[in-house]
Fold this protein.
Amino acid sequence: MTKDYKIRNSDLKQIISIKKLSEERNEYGILVHKYTEILNTRARVVNIDGSESDNNQGIQNKIQVEVYIRFNPLVKIKDTYRIKFNDNYFNIIYIDDLDNRNKWLRIKGVKIE
C-alpha cells in the first residue's frame, strides 16, 4: 500500500473505460479519428477539484478527478488516452505508479466539456 493512500479492493466500486485515439478509414476511404477501448476495469474515482472560468464562449467548468486502478502489466496507459466514467470523458493529465511497486496506478484527469 501507499504511505498517503490506503487502497483496498473493496474501494474499487466504479466502472471506468480507458480509450485510445486511433485512426481508421471509413467506407469512403477517408481517415477518421476514433476512440477504441483498451481497458474496462473497476476503479475508485475521487473528485479533487472544480472551478469555473469565463472565456469568449461563456462560462467553462473544469473538473479534475483522481482514478485509482490496479496495475495491469499488459496495458501501458499513456497521457494521450482518455477515461470514460458515468458518460463523462476525462483527458488524462498525469499517471503515477504509487510507490513504484506496480500494484496501483493513480491517474489524474480533467473533464472534457
About this structure: Strands lie at 14-25, 31-55, 58-70, 82-85, 88-97, 104-111. The CA atoms of residues 75 and 91 lie 17 Å apart. The longest strand covers residues 31-55.
